Amino acid sequence: MIVDLAAQRELRDPARGPARDKEAVASSFSRAAASYDGVAALQRRIGHQLLAYSAGAWQGRVLDLGSGTGYFTRILAEQPAVTDLLALDLAEGMLRYARAQRGHAGIRWLCADAEALPLADNSLDGVFSSLAIQWCDDSGRLFGELRRVLKPGAPLGFATLGPRTLWELRDAWSRVDDFVHVNGFESRHRLRAALAGRFEIERFETEEICLQYPDLRGLTDELKGIGAHNLNPGRHCGLSGRQRIKAFRDAYERFRSQAGLLPASYEVYYGLVRAR
């Protein structure tokens, strides 16, 4: 099912600012489909950790929300108790790539928005979502939709990013200009508040991950390769001049370690909850 993203209402917590352009998000990840797997070591690590946290939870009809290139979709489809696996992603290009590379008789593919699921009430036995819900604008609306489609007691396992993610990148750019250069992410408190009344929390944990790079290009090329461009309103849309780029690189150099490496921090939240 293909949805008209432009026709959907953009609902968002005012504290987080204007909504992202979801067509731009979908296009960015679609373009990155072929390069994603080659630079997704962090995404694989986090997804496997989520699988470990939620071991034994998956059975019946399960949704992989934000399925991307289908890496975890295929793993979920092969779980012995899973009878029907739905793979849903906002990016049509990702779904085309996943079907070609990781097709499976037990998988059905859907192109849709997580905040407006084309699924019936109480129709799912579980939802798995690794590093996808941070691209949604309204966590209350998102968790409301997930509660609607999940059967009472069914599990939702998710991994998402917290606001300290890429704080070094944000800090370096803040010394250059006042534009928004780094995607914003919701806090643990706000996520738990959005879950309240809809889900019972079994597990909610935080992991701090710090990646190291010999140069800044390694980080920026990796972000480009997975399609995680800065797509926030308020970003700088013109060409970046040489002086601005030099100032940014100089500002990031302040974080270089004694080992000669540049850090990039990620704040990861893992949740395992059940529909009320």
Would you write up a description of this structure?
This protein has 276 residues and is an alpha/beta fold. It has a domain at 21-165 and 183-210 and 267-275: Rossmann fold, CATH 3.40.50.150. The chain is built from 10 helices and 7 strands. Strands 3-2-1-4-5-7-6 form a 7-stranded mixed β-sheet, sandwiched between helices. Helix 6 (139-149) runs parallel beside helix 8 (188-195). The radius of gyration is 19 Å and the shape is globular. The model is unreliable at 1-18 (pLDDT under 50).
Quick structural summary:
The chain is α/β, with parallel strands linked by helices and 276 residues long. Helices cover 34% and strands 22% of the residues.
Q: What are the salient characteristics of this protein?
A:
276 residues; Rossmann fold; alpha/beta; globular; 10 helices; disordered N terminus
SSE inventory with pairings:
Blueprint: H1 22-31, H2 33-36, H3 41-53, E1 60-65, H4 71-77, E2 82-89, H5 92-102, E3 107-111, E4 126-130, H6 139-149, E5 155-161, H7 167-174, H8 188-195, E6 199-213, H9 216-225, H10 242-252, E7 262-275
Parallel strand pairs: 1-2, 1-4, 2-3, 4-5
Antiparallel strand pairs: 5-7, 6-7
Helix pairs in contact: 1-5, 6-8, 7-10
